[in-house]
């Protein structure tokens, strides 16, 4: 079992979008029993809340469900429980490393560093542009899946 955790500031816009898109990709490829996905926040601000209505509406356009999803905060145990811990932007990555008390952890990535974009995922909580976020997150999820399958093939 390979476990992937997406992390953003609030766990209501970007990381739940990544979780839902990734789960959809995994289901479509018949990999649900091989790869598990979750998401979490660096902040405690929205614990227990469902994804932002902009995220829910954008995902609905693509027939992707957010049913049952609720924000939670990153915990130290996540370090042991996940193989890939993926922050949406540079500040998320810095906070992940601090919160996990693992200053240089090879499991931790900035999401779009896995694509040609090599930049932060813009936060639609501030930009209001959920389509831009969707497009980048979708590309990022395909890159994460490719990385997992490549490493899995090497027997990692
Ligand atoms: P997210 O976006 O990190 O993509 O979930 C945000 C959600 C909430 C806030 C900021 C960013 N906030 O300030 O409450």
Can you put this structure into words, describing what you see?
This protein has 156 residues and is α/β, with parallel strands linked by helices. It has a single domain, classed as Response regulator (Rossmann fold), CATH 3.40.50.2300. Helices cover 42% and strands 13% of the residues. It is built from six helices and four strands. It has a four-stranded parallel beta sheet. Strand 3, helix 4 and strand 4 form a beta-alpha-beta unit. Helix 1 packs across helix 6. The longest helix is centred in the C-terminal third of the chain and has 24 residues. The structure holds 4-nitrophenyl phosphate (4NP). 4-nitrophenyl phosphate binds next to loops. The site of 4-nitrophenyl phosphate has 10 residues, from loops.
The count of helical stretches stands at 6
**Strand order of the main beta sheet, please?**
2-1-3-4
H and E order: EHEHHEHEHH
* Top CATH class: Alpha Beta
Q: How far is it from the N-terminal to the C-terminal residue, by CA?
A: 12 Å
In helices, the fraction of residues equals 40-55%
Please tell me the CATH architecture by its name.
Answer: 3-Layer(aba) Sandwich
């Amino acid at each position: 079992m390979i476990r992937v955790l997406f992390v953003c500031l609030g766990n209501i816009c970007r990381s739940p979008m990544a979780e839902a898109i990734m789960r959809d990709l995994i289901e479509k490829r018949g990999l649900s029993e091989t790869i598990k996905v979750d998401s979490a926040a660096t902040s405690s601000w929205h614990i227990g809340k469902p994804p932002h209505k902009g995220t829910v509406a954008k995902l609905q356009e693509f027939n992707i469900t957010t049913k049952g999803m609720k924000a939670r905060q990153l915990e130290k145990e996540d370090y042991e429980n996940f193989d890939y811990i993926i922050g949406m932007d540079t500040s998320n990555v810095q906070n992940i490393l601090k919160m996990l008390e693992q200053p240089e952890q090879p499991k931790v990535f900035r999401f779009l560093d896995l694509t040609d974009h090599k930049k932060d995922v813009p936060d639609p909580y501030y930009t209001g542009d959920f389509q831009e976020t969707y497009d980048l997150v979708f590309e990022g999820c395909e890159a994460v899946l490719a990385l997992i399958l490549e490493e899995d093939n090497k027997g990692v």
